[in-house]
């Protein structure tokens, strides 16, 4: 993983333009310029252009190339290998080095505008992170292209599909009143609009897909594919959730895996202080033979994989008796999937999913025997309603042939448990999430406590002075609960599972009663 969140390799100019009055515009792509085929225009043609100008202004636009992005979506991320090729592959037919596709990102964009249509048109796009080797140096570029419905890359067919739709929009809105060649007008409009459209796509790709993670040495030669539900619509829903959390003064665990929080969490997992998860790993390794009947010929769907270290023994066990194995890591953050894939045996086929698994999962997985894994006490990252809701959600995605492997922290020595969360790296995870929410670090204090009555570890932000975050006011001495980790009594998971329509098939508990693994199936 990269040491810090990737930034745009180029400076993004301000996208807002101050429009001058029409009569002051010079050499702009306006009706006055584009509709002119001859500098010596007749009075009649000028009148027609004025009519067209009035029409476009009534539609709320100034220029043909004006556009608004109505939607943005990322459908898939395909990771390619950076493995060095022979000289015969390094040089293209034109004699210069040809780029390798290190990462290919496919998505859709909804555009409206004078030539794109008042009703948003959906266009497919593709972003390719390419690597060109010149001697010992590697040069990277992120190239964007709009595609047709067949996803033809840079072909005339791809361009024609877009231009044909633009031509229809121009004729439909009667915008070519003095310029009969709507196709030529559309081509020029698209040519002028594309640079700004591509800037917006590129900015979104860098923000959401972590392209620099694809060139990290840990995953340099790996190949895998991720399907995603990343979209501006979901971003807006997440923003609403954050505002609601600020107003309620409490959050669920998702905020820790957004932005740089994911990286901090991965660093914590590597630390010596992370003893609780080590108990889980040891419990899995010790009981591999007993777990084999539940994982045999089933595809592991790992909910919240982190670095995937705890499922590696399960995958290796599968490879002992199977010619091949597949692994589906599922997380809200692509950085987590890259971290998981970096540790997986190359013999295992990785096909991840970027989605929020606290949202409905039914119908989102391919048919076939599966075992879902919910490890690392992920179940306990919320109150009882959260826990029941998560189990019900997973249950609805399961068939009678599927299993769910759950790992939970048991209630034990509270002081020992607190040490894990109060460590320097543990605190960094919490503080990173708080800073990402927008709290000024000099105006808050972080307190990590054990709520023994409710059997929970809590991370609480104490506000030292009045402040405002994302439009929500906080007063001095107010508290905000940003993290809850439930600790369980032995046997409690069975009751919780039953309330969600599941039942316990097998349980495993370590000798010190600190951790429990349970295999669940759909109830009868």
UniProtKB/TrEMBL annotation:
The keyword DNA-binding does not apply. Gene3D superfamilies: Vaccinia Virus protein VP39. InterPro entries: EgtD_Methyltrsf_superfamily, MeTrfase_dom, SAM-dependent_MTases_sf. GO terms for molecular function: methyltransferase activity. GO terms for biological process: methylation. Pfam families: Methyltransf_33. Keywords: Methyltransferase, Transferase. Residues 239-521 form the Histidine-specific methyltransferase SAM-dependent domain. The keyword Isomerase does not apply. This is Histidine-specific methyltransferase SAM-dependent domain-containing protein. The lineage of its organism: Bacteria, Candidatus Buchananiibacteriota.
